[in-house]
Hints:
Elements: E1 11-18, E2 27-33, H1 41-51, E3 55-61, E4 70-75, E5 80-81, H2 85-97, E6 104-109, E7 112-118, E8 124-129, E9 133-135, H3 140-145, E10 151-157, E11 163-168, H4 171-176, H5 181-185, E12 191-197, E13 207-213, E14 218-221, H6 228-239, E15 243-249, E16 253-261, E17 264-269, E18 271-279
Parallel strand pairs: 2-3, 4-6, 11-12, 13-15
Antiparallel strand pairs: 1-2, 1-18, 3-4, 4-5, 6-7, 7-8, 8-17, 9-10, 10-11, 12-13, 13-14, 15-16, 16-17
Amino acid sequence: MIKKSSYRRGMRIRIVDAFTDRPFHGNPAAVLLLDTGFPPDAWLQQVAVEMNLSETAFAHPLPPGGDADWALRWFTPAAEVDMCGHATLATAHVLATSGLATGLIRFSARCGVLTAETADDGTITMDFPTSSLTPVPAPAAVDHALGGPPILSVHDTADHIGDLLVELADEKTVRELEPDHAALRAFARRGVIVTAPAEDPSLGYDFVSRGFFPAFGIDEDPVTGSAHTALAPFWARRLGRTELTGLQGGARRGLVRVTLAGDRTLLTGRAVTVVDGELLAAPPGGGRAK
């Protein structure tokens, strides 16, 4: 259900740390809620460049009675992307905490209709399409860019994700990886996700991962929600469970709870707003934000 709110003078913009309950952890995303319609793409890209975060989310309400409540788009500092988990979580968090929406929120995006729902304990669960996984040979260029660690398997993911999922031997190898970002930038895919089983599952997570997307202006993404739509089926098959928790990140980390439900994957996490301010550079023709 969409609720109306009063306007502010500037274009209100927030920075939200997603997949964490503490500031300066998880993955930060900027969120700009618009009154109606999207400004020109060039302006949206300029805002994303200015914010210089892995994603900036833009959303506006849709007329009632349709398949979705809000239109949602995501931009990295380099390009628009088809799917983004952490910025969707951040947007749902802003809508819920500002009173602009309650209950189940439906987003219309380039990858289809996505939903997000906030529970009483503050966690937000998103419903995303499960990625396909196609075994492929390890590209020599990727092996070289990763520094030559032992690679156990490589899988191609669905078009909306467009990553290579690379299985490494253990958690220590994933954590100590120092890839050649310039070499990865020349690789014609969205990015590379490396993963391994947790060394000690009693610590609260079942697998680890890191994500590298230099071709999209992001050397390393701390917590990539969309990648977990591929990590969920990958580890569900190996561990024999459909409910798992992943820990992603290098220096900055976050937790993603996943539930594999056939062709859909539920992603659950928390978020916290760390910046709430005004964007004074209005789009061509003016504009307001909620």
